Amino acid sequence: MNIRKNDMVLVISGKDKGKKGKVRFAYPENKRIMVEGVNFIKKHSKAKGAARQAGIIEREAAIQVSNVMLLCSKCNHPARVGFRFLADGRKVRFCRACGEVID
Ligand SMILES: [Zn+2]
Fold first, then answer.
1. Which of 33, 59, 72, 85 has its CB 3.0 to 4.6 Å from that of 95, i.e. a possible disulfide?
2. Residue 51 Cα, ligand 1 centroid: separation in angstroms?
3. DSSP letter, residue 36
4. Residues 34, 24: contact at Cβ < 8 Å?
5. How far apart are CA 83 and CA 8, in angstroms?
6. Contacts of 28 (CB under 8 A, 6+ apart)
């Protein structure tokens, strides 16, 4: 997966299209990510003893990684991500817009 935790991303489809946020969690096994402030869902919950109140809780839900683009920290553009190997053999991501290595 080319998006990781703590990346800044731009949502490019769905109801939150155009929103930017930081990746809070990444779930590579199902290609989903949780982005700060994106894809709020309303959860209806019943009271469960004293610990939980009844009502509607809003919280973020994971979205498909294909619905976002990485925001390049160097050029600030939504970037397509490429992979490149460094001289020491490390595989790193780079921004196809400005060519800078991202991590
Ligand atoms: Zn860039």
1. 72
2. 46
3. T
4. yes
5. 18
6. 1
Q: Give yes or no for a contact between 23 and 3, defined as CB atoms under 8 angstroms apart.
A: yes
Among residues 94, 103, 17, which one has the least CA distance to residue 63? 17
Per-residue pLDDT of the chain (103 residues; tens, 9 = 90+): 899 999 999 999 999 999 999 999 999 999 999 999 999 999 888 877 777 778 888 889 999 999 999 999 999 999 999 999 999 999 999 999 999 999 7
Ligand 1 centroid, distance to 34 Cα (angstroms): 22
Residues within 5 A (CB) of ion ligand 1: 72, 74-75, 95, 97-98
Distance 101 CA to ligand 1 centre (A): 8
Q: Using the mean position of ligand 1's atoms as its centre, give its distance from the Cα of residue 100 in Å.
A: 6
